[in-house]
Design a protein that fits this description.
The complex is a heterodimer of chains A (145) and B (504). Chain A is 46% helix and 15% strand. By secondary structure, chain A is an alpha/beta fold. With 504 residues, chain B is α+β, with helices and mostly antiparallel strands. Chain B is built from 22 helices and 7 strands. In chain B, strands 2-4-5-7-6 form a 5-stranded mixed sheet. Chain B has a two-stranded antiparallel sheet with strand order 1-3. Classes of the chains: A alpha/beta (145), B alpha+beta (504).
């Protein structure tokens, strides 16, 4: 029995996973914040991650807000927006730091350079540009080897 | 190629003369500051077995084809498309010219002068370059031929520079009768009316141009809108095209093939027809584009891609009853249209302004600032430029990046100008990997002035109005600027660091 942990700010990924990834993953868990992901990651064989968390409230975001504000010339609002835009990668960073090494796939059309950087940083990371069940499953399979 | 200065090579002992690093610094100053034609020999004299010598030769090799192309462009004159002035300017910014090229350059101008004998400047330039060749390479095998060719030009030069002919004797001048006064006010009225009419036509033409403008054309004409366009496109792609359209791709295919399950049909229906009506959501995004970008006309009418995407969204909306019955209708075709639209938007954003941050950019900036009166008066001892290959690109319009860098470089030069020697400035670039997988490009403008200068000074615009322009420009491109001390680096007193996200 394989378990997929879906990490997103809504429920689209979870719904998609239950409908189209179920032949491969018997159980689908859902996390909407970094804390929830850390709490459930131990049960998961693979991770499906949304990149942007625009619907998440600021107080649940993970990441260095002060450092990001310096990066944006002191603009804290812009910094918070950046944390939301990139939240999925920062949650993955936290998961890896906590020792969770499962294959992780983003549904996002990263450039090749960005994808390679993520692989360099976190290992076993893939990206599929759209909700393509066959490609997502194949990528998770490839990363799991 | 990383152009390092003095790395790996230790200074020679004091009794062996100046170190290679000093020799190279002096040779560079001879060209970058003094533009002395003798700089070429000074560059070639730097030991090629050292890092400095290799750098010198690499730059000379980079400049030489540009000089040769410039000479060819002079030869071709109006027949070719190349602009010789631009080619020479590019070459000059990189390295001095091999003095042997002064001879073909002289001959090119001489021949140009023969084709256009009414323009004396070609012969003047030819004579100048013959003289430079002869002075710099007096013993070259071609020196005698050069002297002979210069001597041929001299008679013409004597004629060209001869005193003007004696003016004819003054003829008796009969003063003309004074003209009768003419009322001028009708002319002023007509003139003002003409100006207003022209202005009105210009405004009308401008408005009609702004009306029917595609997003791609708008992006080309208005580079300052690039961050806004990028954000709006990302929102449209993420919220609508990915989560509501893209998410149903498998279900659409299954329905079209006739084997969609009930769950898949429900998913399809909920995604396309649940929540905010799809067409309303689409129009909301289009309205955001129009508001944020100041568009006067409906984007879906002005832009062919938006027009076909809107038709596809309308079609999907009309198919609600069919889809819920399990009848796909033209759903697959509309879905495919929107997937193509999504790809077009991604490509548009990718194409938006990109500038490589490289040595050529840095040299252009330094040259332009040194061409200014105040900064040009500062006796700089060294300008250090380091740029890796390949150069990282950033999504900043070049003219804006040059504006930013010129202001920072100007401040650095003026700061060291107030101090005792050595007066040095440096520009270099590096990239930093972020935990998000993105990369930040850091441009360093370094100087040796110990005067206090902080990040707060920049943002408070205490030092210079130019730095106010810098912070405004950086805000447009999500860049930042900070003054960072360089305690660990004995060569510099501080570094002003400008950050941008690297363009993927």
């Amino acid at each position: 029995m394989a378990t997929l942990l879906v990490i997103e700010d809504g429920d689209e990924y979870e719904e998609f996973a239950r409908l189209f990834l179920s032949p491969r993953y018997d159980e689908v868990l859902a996390a909407h914040t970094c804390d929830e992901a850390l709490a459930q990651a131990g049960e998961a064989d693979a991770l499906l991650i949304d990149l942007r968390f625009e619907r998440a409230p600021n107080d649940v975001l993970v990441g260095d807000l002060a450092g990001a504000a310096r990066r944006f010339g002191g603009d804290e609002a812009r910094a918070a927006r950046w944390l939301k835009e990139q939240q999925g990668t920062l949650i993955l960073a936290a998961l890896r730091e906590a020792g969770h090494a499962q294959p992780a796939v983003f549904v996002h059309d990263f450039t090749e350079r960005r994808r390679k950087n993520l692989e360099k940083l976190y290992a076993r990371v893939g990206a599929v540009p759209a909700f393509d069940a066959a490609r997502i499953l194949a990528t998770l399979e490839e990363l799991g080897r | 190629m990383l152009l390092t200065l003095g790395c790996g090579e230790r200074a020679a002992p004091a009794d062996a003369g100046p170190s290679v690093a000093t020799q190279w610094a002096e040779a560079r100053a001879l060209w970058y500051i003094d533009r002395d034609p003798a700089a070429y020999q000074a560059w070639m004299a730097v030991d090629p077995g050292t890092g400095e010598g290799r750098e010198a030769r690499a730059l000379l090799a980079e400049a030489e084809p540009l000089y040769r192309q410039g000479i060819d462009a002079v030869r071709e004159d109006a027949a070719g498309d190349a602009d010789p002035r631009a080619l020479f300017e590019r070459a000059v910014r990189v390295a001095p010219m091999d003095p042997r090229l002064y001879l073909p350059l002289a001959r090119a101008f001489r021949d140009l002068g023969r084709r256009s004998p009414d323009n004396p400047h070609h012969f003047i330039r030819a004579a100048e370059y013959y003289r430079k060749f002869i002075v710099l390479l007096p013993h070259d095998g071609q020196a005698e031929a050069a002297r002979a060719e210069l001597a041929e030009l001299d008679p013409d030069s004597e004629r060209l520079f001869a005193p003007p002919p004696t003016p004819p004797p003054e003829a008796e001048v009969i003063p003309a009768a004074a003209p009768a006064p003419v009322a001028l006010w009708p002319l002023w009225v007509a003139f003002v009316a003409l100006v207003l009419a022209v202005a009105a036509v210009a405004v009308l033409l401008s408005r009609s141009r702004r009306r029917r403008v595609s997003l791609e054309t708008l992006a080309e004409r208005r580079p300052e809108l690039h961050p806004a366009i990028t954000y709006l496109v990302h929102s449209l792609r993420h919220e609508l095209l990915k989560h509501r359209i893209g998410a149903v791709g498998d279900a659409v295919s299954a329905l079209d093939a006739g084997h969609a399950t009930d769950a898949q049909r429900d998913f399809l229906s909920s995604r396309l027809y649940g929540g905010e009506p799809l067409f309303d959501a689409w129009r909301g995004h289009v309205a955001s584009f129009e508001r944020a970008l100041g568009l006067e006309d409906d984007l879906a009418r002005a832009d062919p891609s938006f027009r076909s995407a809107e038709r596809a969204v309308e079609q999907i909306a009309k198919l609600e009853a069919h889809v819920k019955r399990g009848d796909p209708g033209a759903l697959q075709r509309s879905y495919d249209t929107l997937r193509r639209f999504d790809v077009q938007l991604r490509e548009l954003v990718t194409q938006l302004t990109r500038t490589p941050v490289d040595g050529a950019l840095f040299r252009d900036v330094v040259d332009e600032v040194r061409g200014e009166y105040a900064a040009g008066q500062v006796p700089l001892d060294e300008v250090v430029i380091r740029a890796p290959e390949p150069a990282p690109e950033i999504e900043v319009f070049r003219v804006d990046l040059v504006l930013v860098l010129k202001n920072v470089v100007r401040n650095a030069i003026l700061a060291v100008g107030d101090e005792e020697p050595p007066r040095r400035i440096g520009l270099d670039v590096e990239t930093q990997l972020e935990p998000t997988g993105e990369e930040t490009v850091l441009v360093h403008v370094r100087d040796t002035s110990p005067a206090e200068f902080t990040t707060e000074d920049i943002y408070a615009r205490r030092m210079d109005r130019g730095l106010g322009l810098v912070t405004a420009a950086l805000g447009r491109y999500e860049g930042s600027i900070a003054v960072e001390p360089t305690e660990d680096d004995a060569d510099w007193a501080k570094s002003v660091v400008i950050r941008f996200f690297r363009a993927d």
